[in-house]
């Protein structure tokens, strides 16, 4: 970077130093096999141009960093861990390495990833989940390779997503078939495209079936086992209780099942639990769960990143595994 003069590329340094682009690249990479005189000329040119080496400098001659940024809110949740494994596997096959941007849903941390993209420190970004509005992110996306793991309405962009709307509706239909009409919903958060799709599916299906919905039957900020335990405690205090809960995380469902057992609450006799993800913990605790192809989301998102065609959506479906909690 030339202060006050925009981006300086390797060719500018090579021209001033009177050497080849490859020689500049070797000097910047601290390659040992460069004649001392040429090394000195390159370093003098760098100083004269007031050049600041960044992570992109060593790749300017190729135009690629072979690095992709993955934006995710948390590393310790199985959902995002599975997506990351899918991305990492494909990246390894194609010679890319990952830069992880853990945001904790902090908007500033998320924007930092986009600034890194603008600085060409990465060749693209995969957003597993986001906190900023599209209006905020759109200016950063011009001519940029960005893949969303959600249904981005009204924007022509690369996107892969689970049909969460239909998934929730399918879950409710299954519970209706088992005789349930008072059904609650337990999810990660109330905002965000995927959560909003789940909530919309919940309300649309309940309204179409003529079934009641109570505000106190919707639980959010549920991510971990402990959150599931808290949901059961809150459910027990309700004057009018739902007979079933749709839970969007097997980790939370596992906490609910274990807490219910401690309190003598019969599952599914007193409370039915229909979960999502179908992680091994669901099988271990005999939890009825919809399989969400999370790892495939990661794999396909990387494949979308590699594509140079017009942006296209990839939509994945869920599959029910019936066990003992419904």
UniProtKB/TrEMBL annotation:
Q: Which residues form a coiled coil?
A: none
Mind listing the GO molecular function terms for this protein? DNA-binding transcription factor activity; transcription cis-regulatory region binding
Q: Which SMART domains match?
A: HTH_LACI (SM00354)
Keywords noted in UniProt: DNA-binding, Transcription, Transcription regulation
Please name one Pfam family that this protein belongs to: LacI
Q: Which PANTHER family match?
A: CATABOLITE CONTROL PROTEIN B (PTHR30146:SF105), LACI-RELATED TRANSCRIPTIONAL REPRESSOR (PTHR30146)
Name the record gives this protein:
LacI family DNA-binding transcriptional regulator
Instruction: Look up and give the organism this protein is from.
Output: Rossellomorea aquimaris
């Amino acid at each position: 970077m030339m202060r006050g003069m925009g981006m300086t590329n390797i060719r500018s340094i090579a021209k001033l130093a009177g050497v080849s682009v490859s020689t500049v690249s070797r000097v910047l990479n601290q390659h040992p096999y460069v004649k001392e005189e040429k090394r000195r000329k390159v370093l003098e040119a760098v100083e004269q141009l007031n050049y600041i080496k960044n992570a992109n400098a060593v790749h300017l001659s190729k135009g690629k960093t072979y690095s992709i940024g993955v934006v995710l809110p948390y590393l310790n949740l199985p959902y995002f861990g599975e997506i990351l494994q899918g991305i990492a596997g494909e990246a390894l096959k194609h010679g890319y390495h990952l830069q992880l941007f853990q945001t904790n849903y902090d908007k500033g941390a998320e924007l930092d990833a986009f600034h890194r993209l603008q600085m060409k420190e990465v060749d693209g970004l995969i957003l597993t989940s986001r906190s900023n509005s599209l209006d905020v992110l759109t200016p950063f996306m011009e001519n940029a390779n960005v893949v969303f793991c959600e249904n981005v309405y009204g924007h022509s962009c690369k996107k892969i997503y689970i049909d969460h709307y239909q998934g929730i509706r399918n879950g409710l239909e299954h519970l209706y078939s088992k005789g349930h009409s008072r059904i609650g919903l337990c999810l990660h958060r109330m905002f965000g495209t995927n959560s909003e799709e789940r909530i919309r599916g919940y309300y649309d299906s309940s309204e179409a079936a003529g079934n009641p919905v109570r505000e106190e039957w919707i639980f959010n900020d549920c991510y971990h086992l402990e959150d599931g335990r808290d949901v059961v405690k809150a459910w027990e205090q309700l004057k009018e209780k739902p007979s079933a809960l749709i839970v969007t995380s097997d980790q939370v469902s596992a906490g609910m099942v274990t807490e219910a057992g401690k309190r003598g609450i019969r599952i599914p006799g007193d409370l039915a639990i229909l979960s999502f993800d179908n992680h091994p913990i669901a099988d271990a605790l005999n939890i009825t769960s919809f399989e969400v192809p999370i790892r495939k989301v990661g794999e396909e998102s990387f494949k979308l990143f590699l594509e140079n065609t017009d942006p296209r959506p990839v939509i994945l479906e869920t599959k029910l595994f019936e066990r003992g909690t419904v």
